[in-house]
Fold this sequence. Notes:
This protein is an alpha/beta fold. It has a single domain (2-211), classed as Vaccinia Virus protein VP39 (Rossmann fold, 3-Layer(aba) Sandwich). 40% of the residues lie in helices and 23% in strands. It has helices spanning 2-8, 12-16, 23-30, 47-55, 68-77, 95-99, 119-128, 149-160, 170-181, 205-211, and strands at residues 37-41, 60-65, 83-87, 104-110, 130-141, 184-190, 195-201. A seven-stranded mixed β-sheet has the order 3-2-1-4-5-7-6, with helices on both faces. α3 runs parallel beside α4 (47-55) and α7 packs parallel to α9 (170-181). The model is unreliable at 7-15 and 208-214 (pLDDT under 50). Keywords: Methyltransferase, Transferase.
Amino acid sequence: xxxxxxxxxxxxxxxxxxxxxxxxxxxxxxxxxxxxxxxxxxxxxxxxxxxxxxxxxxxxxxxxxxxxxxxxxxxxxxxxxxxxxxxxxxxxxxxxxxxxxxxxxxxxxxxxxxxxxxxxxxxxxxxxxxxxxxxxxxxxxxxxxxxxxxxxxxxxxxxxxxxxxxxxxxxxxxxxxxxxxxxxxxxxxxxxxxxxxxxxxxxxxxxxxxxxxx
Length: 214
């Protein structure tokens, strides 16, 4: 990852804003509680967490990435913003050891699952770190199901040059996650399925207690 991003990180945000659709919509729907904890998995340059900081100034923000190069850029961009960053494998990390936090009110993953081979392990890891009432938000490339075939083919070829693979069964895996957590899943297809946006919303403590009565 450092080899890929050593140079790209300097112009990454300027180019990605044209085709990483839905990131700002995801941030708008995070709505963490006051002083709530927010973790981004695959934080890259810190662009998303800086947007979260501007929109939710009271939140406690954390980001992790596997790339030292990206983290160096994120830390430089985030000076004075009180955002904690750490290097870690997204599929296996200890948030208590990294950040001193066991559970998070919000966890989000933006266009990272399509670049991580063990992406299903990342989903399992992320969902296990949700506090009661916590939410997992995901945006990534969809299957372009309502877009012309030529566009889909061209996009897939182009993405493959950057080691990006849209996950055809992402929705099914998130349905599994929601079912295992007793959570609600919200799914939105953006721009003809160019991107998929998800929110897994865990029940709170009172909801868990009520459900255990029946």
